[in-house]
Design goal:
It is a single chain. The chain is mostly helical. The protein has 43 helices and no strands.
Length: 741
């Protein structure tokens, strides 16, 4: 035709070609054909050409392509007709394409077209998206455009008002529809009945149902379904059951929502017999067993009566559970969630499917579910009923059980599981190591925890996370492993783990004795710069570190930062008072004690001890005695450390009478000398030339099962040397070496 020139100005022929190309879905060729119509055949475009393509796209649901043809139509200044708008709006309604629908609707009004179906589509789209105000605006535009509503327009308006619960307006719409000459319509009545059911106004719904017969309309399947749902929402089991039975008697089928409603009502009203019949109905109408099980569990869970499910679950549905691993897992998970552990174990014992990998995962899920809900005994019960593995134990299940036994305080069972897992040859992962380390730490077996960490270090593929790093720091601190702490700190730095507030606090708290003061200072400053808040312990540790290093300006800055944040406690004052005392900054020490009292804290025993030690060592005996007097006046009882300080200070000055008085007071108050007391007394007796008394103290210690340490022997040897008892000193030195000190 093209060669013979028969396409020249032949719009009809081109329309036929486009129809063929549309059927073939050759859209590129269709686009070329449209261009050819203008450039080669001198054909003027009209809406029929584009309607052919839009119709093809509409049938296939091709939204983007239909929109493309419509835009091309407008670009070529081809006015659309009602058919164009109707096809496009119907397509957009199916896909709820709001933006495209609004644009097309606007073009319809611009071209002064009155497509009734377009108004219906626009109202429907807005209603689906719950944009009810917009839907009402479209209704107003219909009146403004003087469009006479057809049946579809009335019905979508009725639906829009019903969905948003405006039933008075909906009834007014139905009255207007009938006044406009439309006969009573079952769809309209069903829409209103559904609306009244949603707001549980079943008296009005019942009136509409009864009115159906008076207007000569028989209720259909949807009518009965809506009545069942309405009475279900109103929690009226008897009425819902009546309509359900009538629905079946008329040969109609309930939908899944009806069946769920009936099961929910039967669960609430303790009617297990009818619940079994409802399940039979579901099976008869072809519902999938998995769906039936899901609906049954939901209904009884909401009613709080899931313990009745084992009594209802029987016949072919129960057989399905035993052979289908997915349904089986859904059921046992629901049982375990509601503490029906025995029923879950029975199902798992009777199941007929075989999939060891799935079964292990299922048991793990059940145990984890018990753990999360705090039902640890149930978790142990499930674990004890697990099939025993022929090969190696499951790493994840064993790890979870170790954690559960640890929470329950049953550490021997947890340790046994770990040792069995370790001996099985399975390569442990980071999570398992974390669980075991935490278990030993909680059990107080920090040595065993360190052993686990050593095992982990030998396994080169383990990369600890931030939580395990923190556990490792705490374990090494409790064990006093300074070198390990230092190595771990630099390992953490190299790991690239992102530090959080807790990590900063943990590292400073644990590594205070393992890191140089400059490094700790850098950490502390970095923590503040990142906006993290040190806790009271961190502040106190930094006070201690700076104080013992003689960095009093930094210590004071830390103290006032903590005070400004309200994190100062008695320990903070004790720490800085002790630091000032050891640094011989007696004025600062005294003023800090005054500030302590001014801040509402009572002067603590530790603070008094620090003042006694500082004043005594500096020879300020008047201040020393003044502190002792203040202690008596404030009824602050002394401890062994207080008495040891007094013995040491009096002994250094050779005041044996005072030492004797302190020793007597120590015995009277019921404390008795401790190792430190004896060490101090031996030193004091040595200074006073009372060698025999010093040796007697050694015998007294043995009689009280107080084992001398290196300081004891050194003080005694020095006392003997001081008093020219060199032979005796040599004997005690040899004895000290034999003791391995």
């Amino acid at each position: 035709m093209r060669v013979n020139g028969k396409l020249k100005q032949n719009v009809t022929a081109y329309n036929l070609i486009l129809r063929v190309l549309s059927r073939r879905e050759d859209w590129d060729a269709a686009e070329r054909t449209i261009q050819e119509m203008i450039t080669v055949s001198s054909c003027a475009h009209d809406c029929r050409v584009f309607n052919t393509l839009i119709y093809g796209c509409s049938k296939r649901g091709l939204v983007k392509l239909a929109t493309k043809w419509f835009n091309m139509m407008l670009q070529n200044r081809v006015p659309p007709n009602i058919a164009t708008i109707g096809m496009l709006m119907s397509l957009y309604q199916k896909g709820c394409n709001l933006e495209e629908a609004e644009f097309t609707f606007l073009q319809m009004r611009n071209y002064k077209l009155k497509c009734q179906s377009a108004y219906s589509s626009m109202i429907t789209i807005y209603s689906r998206l719950s944009l009810y105000d917009k839907a009402e605006e479209v209704s107003a535009l219909m009146r403004e455009d003087k469009v006479v509503p057809n049946l579809e327009n009335w019905l979508v308006l009725l639906n829009a008002y019903s969905q948003q619960g405006k039933l008075e307006e909906a009834e007014s719409i139905m009255n207007s529809m009938e006044y406009a000459g439309f006969p009573p319509n079952i769809i309209a009545y069903n829409t209103l009945i559904t609306g009244f059911g949603k707001i549980s106004n079943m008296d009005s719904a019942q009136c509409l149902f009864q009115k159906l017969k008076t207007v000569g309309i028989e209720p259909d399947e949807t009518t009965f379904r809506s009545m069942i749902e309405g009475w279900g929402r109103a929690n009226n089991y008897r009425e819902a059951e009546r309509y359900y039975m009538e629905l079946k008697m008329l040969g109609f089928k309930p939908n899944s929502s009806n069946l769920y409603t009936m099961l929910s009502l039967q669960a609430k009203h303790n009617d297990e017999e009818c619940a079994c019949k409802t399940i039979d109905d579901m099976i008869k109408i072809g519902c999938q067993y998995s769906s039936i099980l899901s609906i049954l569990l939901q209904a009884y869970e909401r009613a709080g009566r899931i313990q009745m499910v084992p009594l209802i679950l029987k016949g072919s549905l129960y057989e399905h559970v035993l052979v289908n691993q997915t349904s089986c897992s859904v059921l046992v998970m629901a049982y375990v969630k509601h503490c029906l552990v025995d029923d879950a174990i029975e199902i798992l014992f009777e199941k007929r499917w075989r999939d060891s990998y799935f079964e292990d995962n299922l048991y793990h899920l059940l145990i984890c579910s018990c753990k999360e809900s705090g039902h640890y005994e149930s978790a142990v019960k499930i674990y004890s009923h697990m099939p025993k593995p022929n090969e190696k134990p499951n790493l994840h299940i064993t790890g979870t059980m170790i954690d559960i036994y640890s929470i329950m305080g049953q550490y021997s069972e947890a340790k046994d599981l770990y040792l069995k897992l370790k001996s099985s040859g399975i390569e442990l992962d980071m999570i398992l190591f974390s669980i075991v380390v935490r278990m030993y730490a909680k059990a107080g077996s920090v040595t065993d925890a360190c052993s686990v960490l050593d095992t982990m270090d030998k396994q080169k593929n383990i990369v600890p996370d931030i939580y395990l790093f923190r556990d490792m720091l705490r374990i090494y601190q409790k064990c006093g492993m300074v070198d390990k702490l230092s190595d771990l700190y630099y390992k953490i730095l190299k790991s690239g783990v992102d530090w959080d507030q807790e990590m900063y606090n943990c590292v400073i708290n644990c590594c205070a004795r393992a890191l140089p003061v400059d490094e700790l200072s850098r950490l502390y400053d970095g923590m503040l710069q990142r906006g993290f808040a040190p806790n009271t312990i961190t502040f106190n540790i930094m006070l201690d570190v700076y104080g013992k290093s003689g960095l009093f300006k930094k210590a004071k800055k830390v103290f006032y930062t903590a005070k400004r944040r309200g994190l100062i406690d008695v320990i903070s004052y004790n720490t800085i008072i002790s630091a000032y005392g050891q640094g011989k900054r007696l004025k600062d020490m005294k003023s800090t004690v005054q500030k302590m009292e001014f801040s509402g804290f009572s002067v603590s025993l530790e603070a008094y001890n620090s003042m006694l030690d500082a004043y005594g060592k500096e020879g300020q005996m008047e201040c020393f005695k003044s502190v002792l007097q203040r202690m008596k006046e404030s009824n602050c009882a002394s401890d062994n450390y207080t008495y040891n300080i007094m013995i040491n200070i009096y002994g250094e000055r050779g005041w044996i009478e005072e030492v004797t008085a302190v020793l007597e007071e120590l015995r009277v108050c019921g404390l008795g000398p401790d190792l430190c007391s004896y060490n101090t007394l031996i030193k004091a007796y040595g200074i006073a030339g009372m060698v025999e008394e010093a040796v007697e103290l050694m015998k007294e210690m043995r009689g009280k099962d107080i084992r001398p340490d290196k300081i004891t022997y050194v003080n005694l040897i020095n006392a003997l040397k001081r008093n020219d008892k060199f032979l005796e000193a040599v004997k005690w030195s040899l004895w000290m070496k034999q003791m391995g000190l």
